[in-house]
Amino acid sequence: MAAAAAAAAVGGPQPPQPELAASGLALDKAATAAHLKAALSRPDNRAGAEELQALLERVLSAERPLAAAGEEAAAAGGGGGAGAAEEEALEWCKCLLAGGGGYEEFCAAVRAYDPAALCGLVWTANFVAYRCRTCGISPCMSLCAECFHQGDHTGHDFNMFRSQAGGACDCGDSNVMRESGFCKRHQIKSSSNIPCVPKDLLMMSEFVLPRFIFCLIQYLREGYNEPAADVPSEKDLNKVLQLLEPQISFLEDLTKMGGAMRSVLTQVLTNQQNYKDLTSGLGENACAKKSHEKYLIALKSSGLTYPEDKLVYGMQEPSAGTSTLAVQGFAGAAGPLGQVDSSDEEDQDGSQGLGKRKRVKLSSGTKDQSIMDVLKHKSFLEELLFWTIKYEFPQKMVTFLLNMLPDQEYKVAFTKTFVQHYAFIMKTLKKSHESDTMSNRIVHISVQLFSNEELARQVTEECQLLDIMVTVLLYMMESCLIKSELQDEENSLHVVVNCGEALLKNNTYWPLVSDFINILSHQSVAKRFLEDHGLLVTWMNFVSFFQGMNLNKRELNEHVEFESQTYYAAFAAELEACAQPMWGLLSHCKVRETQEYTRNVVRYCLEALQDWFDAINFVDEPAPNQVTFHLPLHRYYAMFLSKAVKCQELDLDSVLPDQEMLMKLMIHPLQIQASLAEIHSNMWVRNGLQIKGQAMTYVQSHFCNSMIDPDIYLLQVCASRLDPDYFISSVFERFKVVDLLTMASQHQNTVLDAEHERSMLEGALTFLVILLSLRLHLGMSDDEILRAEMVAQLCMNDRTHSSLLDLIPENPNPKSGIIPGSYSFESVLSAVADFKAPVFEPGGSMQQGMYTPKAEVWDQEFDPVMVILRTVYRRDVQSAMDRYTAFLKQSGKFPGNPWPPYKKRTSLHPSYKGLMRLLHCKTLHIVLFTLLYKILMDHQNLSEHVLCMVLYLIELGLENSAEEESDEEASVGGPERCHDSWFPGSNLVSNMRHFINYVRVRVPDTAPEVKRDSPASTSSDNMGSSQNSGTAQVFSLVAERRKKFQEIINRSSSEANQVVRPKTSNKWSAPGSAPQLTTAILEIKESILSLLIKLHHKLSGKQNSYYPPWLDDIELLIQPEIPKYSHGDGITAVERILLKAALQSRMNKRIIEEICRKVTPPVPPKKITAAEKKTLDKEERRQKARERQQKLLAEFASRQKSFMETAMDVDSPENDIPMEITAAEPQVSEAVYDCVICGQSGPSSEDRPTGLVVLLQASSVLGQCRDNVEPKKLPITEEEQIYPWDTCAAVHDVRLSLLQRYFKDSSCLLAVSIGWEGGVYVQTCGHTLHIDCHKSYMESLRNDQVLQGFSVDKGEFTCPLCRQFANSVLPCYPGSHVENNLWQRTSNKSIQDLIKEVEELQGRPGAFPSETNLSKEMESVMKDIKNTTQKKYRDYSKTPGSPDNDFLFMYSVARTNLELELIHRGGNLCSGGASTAGKRSCLNQLFHVLALHMRLYSIDAEFNPWRKLTQLVEEMNSQLGNEEQQPEVPILYHDVTSLLLIQILMMPQPLRKEHFTCIVKVLFTLLYTQALAALSVKCSEEDRSAWKHAGAVKKSTCDAEKSYEVLLSFVINELSKAKLYREEGTQECAMASAIAWSPESMEKYLQDFCLPFLRITSLLQHHLFGEDLPSCQEEEEFSVLASCLGLLPTFYQTEHPFVSASCLDWPLPAFDIITQWCSEIKSFTERHAEQGKALLIQESKWKLPHLLQLPENYNTIFQYYHRKTCSVCTKVPKDPAVCLVCGTFVCLKGLCCKQQSYCECVLHSQNCGAGTGIFLLINASVIIIIRGHRFCLWGSVYLDAHGEEDRDLRRGKPLYICKERYKVLEQQWISHTFDHINKRWGPHYNGL
Prior knowledge:
alpha+beta, three-stranded antiparallel beta sheet, 76 helices, 29 strands, flat, disordered N terminus
């Protein structure tokens, strides 16, 4: 009802009624809408309808906005107004649709009626989607992430992928995927329970939308201006599209309202009446007229006609019968060529056709006009699609059209419309300048339509989809045809595509081809295609355009100046346009019932081939020196034959042509095989590299089964049906080695240079072996094939799972979707290979999980023939043989250099039995005999490979001998029967024993044979009468072949008798053209058997080495399969063959025994001419030189290896040879250093100092320590966030700023250490060099600009010896390390004396030593250290640049290095021993440099903390007097370790051991007091009072000063005076009192508080005085370190439990000094108790730093981060990354977050890691390291189930964390070894 009303309402545009309009404006929109809705709801709604019409007419009039688009200036001026008007119009529409209500509520109401059982979400390029092969019916099936995760796909074969062209979610569509895979939302068939849509809800939509869409179309018409001449006005198009953005978005929103609204839209878009009324342009509305005219112009200019204009073609609706018309057209076209012409507007660029090769146009009769040129639009949908195409598929429009697809009715209508516009799409695509984008958009649409079998079938039946597609493809290719130059250049009538054209170069055809492949994957559609003869003819026509394209002509004189790369285009075109459709068709010819289809294809294929041979004028000789790799017609024919025999049980002979055709068919594929050999013999080297590229691509895994496999199969078929002698001689002739096959020792080769002969002969024999032993199409089952392919690939190299998948040629129709039996792939893989889990080499190179062949595979299945067939690079064959050799050696099967093993073959399919006749034809036997003889006589140009192949062929012949000889004995009697020919019969078994006596050869006069005795002597031979000179054998392969050819020709056609042979090429027929050849007769007297036995002698190097084994072991003859013979070298092969020959016939056995009995006389040394001797010597010399070189290289390699083992142990320092620095013997007075540049040794001196090669780097690793063991997790939800408050760096920062708030700045800077963040870490490889040598080394590096990875200007270099990365040199302080021994005498001075000495020494001013070289270097290295870190990590003082800053920085460097070494040891010193970094430590040298500089800043004696530690200060009032000044930091707030470093660095170096111990003792008392104070603050009020009393009681005892109870009670007492404990809120009590303190726990607390200090101090002592660290259990670490430091008296007994207080050695009465320390706090805590308390509790128990903990499955990271918005720029980054140290989310390379030319990652690496950043790239799953100005790709810590990385998530398989790898990464981070271990660094120029 509503629809009818709408139609009526639109009846005709009424003249607008002005008064109504005015009133309409007065009312507001909502009221108007409500009023209209009411009016329209009445039964008689004419009036309402008219009123609405008028309103819409006014609101949506298309005149305003775009009328001016034509005159651009006006548009530019009035842009603003237009936009406003449009928004107004949209507002009106929204109001009207909602009928007066709110638009949002309206949307919600409509959504409630959504019966969507389909998801249908549309996405554009780069969207992340999923594909599940287990659930997919169509291979193109895809799911959005949401549907995928909501469904259950556990254990399925799925992957994630980045959409290339865009797509749509198929969830809920049972045509495309199995229902089991639907997600929870789309499983319910929801349509049943959704209530019916109330009529009035969408009533307004039905009225408003037609006008709205018409308005849109008018805009599109208005905006389109035909591009002037050539230049497409893309600007204009885009401008129009931008203006229309809001309208299209509005439509898109409507589609998202669900099914109810979609069905209304479908009605509107497909209703023909609406369209007719609104767009006919017949009304009086001028605007409508104008727009209609523009539309007609656009149609015309597109080369389309509007059927009303000319009704010439008697058909508007092409009926089903019309395809015949197309067929006739094409048949006409293939013959005569059309006129050459480039006037047609399609070909404006015809003029730039390549050089002289003009484009060829087929005559115009070829096109089915109805398909190509007629378009009639009958609905909005059709015209919308037309404009979508015209505007080159704008993304918004595409998305709108696709969003509608869940509506079934629309889907059908749209598909038909799309098909109807197919030709137009092709034309637009060809002209487009953005063909890539456009292709993607087209496929985005078509894949949604054609993947659905039901729909594809319907369109095929109703719209002739197949006709249209084939015609359109043909038409498209016609535009770039050129004349073929194959064979007969002048008269060739064949045309081929020109691979240089953009159409092919840019793959512009792929959208159309991919659609075609897609529809052919549906059985019902493919059936139609295979049944339709007309279509098949057309298709073969299309394929023939590619037959012989990209012809290569061999350059004979000079190198080609321009290497064309067109071969890429040619191979891609053949694969995509010919092979893939072929595989698609073949997949439907699997059963017997489909025989008819095969017959059809084969029939039309043969016809096309016959036409092709005629067109190129082919007789029987291919033109020399040219080859094309593209023979798609041959391959179609071959593959359908193979299928027919394999699956359809067709009789092969019924589909084969006559002999003559077979002879023609074999020529070109054979030509390709010969050319491959020529290319590999470097005969095509002048054609450039690209010809090698072609030879490789031809056999490469993605192409081989569409190229080389069919070719070889076709040759096998031809060989099995043609005369074997003819075939064999053709092969040798094609390979140009006929002249080589002579018994004479010298020969002339008219067609081949001598240097190529050997490799061509090898090529010919190898080809024959492959031809005869390959069974891919001759009887192997699919699983056997898969297994053979897999074994071949694994034998070449170990492979990862993904590369195997890639290398094994699958049924290469990617559209067949499911990897052919991925199940069988896995099962075969596990049968033939073992998995090697990924290992980590210490060098840091990451291994992938690899598969390696099992032992029994090497033993039984290694097949060299398959390997040779499948290798792209020749070196892979060698690699397979090397691995085979290694296996045999290892398993003890064969020690020497084995030959390729002979492998038993699958039995032949009966149809191909004829192939074996090749092995039993005289021609082959003669060749084999000749070659064996030549090898035995050492003729030149023969190789082991030739022998190997000859033996292989003999063995093949024995394995496949046709019938056991019955007439054995009989045949012996009549040798006279056969004196015309060499051998009596054609069976190899009997021919092997046939003796050949004399051979007549043609030789050059110079040959040694000529100078023999005259052949007269032959008759007087003991052979008797029969032997006259006539019996000498003559043999010419060529003549033989000619004879056979003639026979075959005459047999097949008597008419063609004379015409056939006009073109004998002189080359072959005139041997006389060579220098004088004379005939000589050679005496041979050998048979194949005797030659074999002699060969055995020759190979083994001793006479009579062969002894028939069966004489000893008669068993051999009964049960011959003996493993002994299966692996070995040539000797083994000969033995195996002789055994087989003996087995096959008794005669042979007897003859072998006879030969062995006549003890063979030694082979006479042949006369060697001087010239030959020269070449032989040369060869030998070369061989020897080669061996020498190998030997040298091996020696060199082993030397290098042993050096690397000693020098480079980046990760395994345990097995180190300590370097000279620390290993100086005590008796040496001075340390001696080796300079690694000049090689001299000597001490370091003031004027020629030596330095250590060091790497300085800023590090924030220490700052990342936390106080809990559990590492933080990487956040993977919005709730989880990481706050860095609890890191070591943050805590220290807070402490420093707190001190700075209340105390004097200069004193604060002495109370703490910095360097937790951005501290400078110094490491060395341990090598030393003279500093002057280093300077010249740097100079040479600076001049040598080919450096990668490091910048010399920044002082970076690699250690000249071990190549470790470094950036500075640390001078070694002159003097010995042994002096230390003098200082280590135990002194008996009292501690008081020592304290005075220390003070005294510190008081001495440290004058800077005079200006020596050493001091200069010291200064410069200090500068380097400062510049290593950023300013913000050096300046903490309130007054920038104050000396205190430098002072603080310097001792903090020492602290950083000690702390880091502690971390490298695992955080404690329990392991003891020499430091793991011992030999590499440079702390000693570093200390000297630091001390030298620190002593320049003398601390005013007033403020020297040493005073406060060791003296009681009398008057306290001095401090109170100057209130306005900030006080000094109380000594209890000082960091004791910092004090230690200050004290030690202030002493003159080298330091005496006794002073060191004294300092440590004094500081330990302070530390202990701090521990007590902290403990007292931590515990509750009750505990405190209890302890206070307990201690007070014991105070009077003798060792009160060493009892922690007494001291604790005293500290509590003193601190309570300072009112420290007073304002204790109840909440704190509750918290603290939870812990009950026992004496044990208190003791543990005190020890833990003091341990960090003891560890650092022990390390320091170890480095300064070279003492070893003791090892211990964890629980006794404290006592061991204490005694090691001399804190524990040596007589200390360890029986009773150890008490830390016993280490105390007070310099002053304990209670006095504690009182003094506590009173310093007093004045502060009285005012700030809280802060006072906080400063006392120093958290010192830091755990080791860790990277963030990552989730098990990568998907959890990916799903959260890849859509996450950046907090800085609030966009979703294109390359998101996350920092693995702190979890910050950053934009990699994002310009959005760039600050002062630094991109975000680089900036973050400076802030978070002081220049070191570790980032996980979310979209690539890899980790990159940024180190300063360089970066490197580290690799991935996520691997798939097969242990492989998936960089860039290309494969999209599920990835799981690899804990070992992550540990390696963390280890490198903590040990700062990124620079040493990772090799591939590059500069990032701040752009990451």
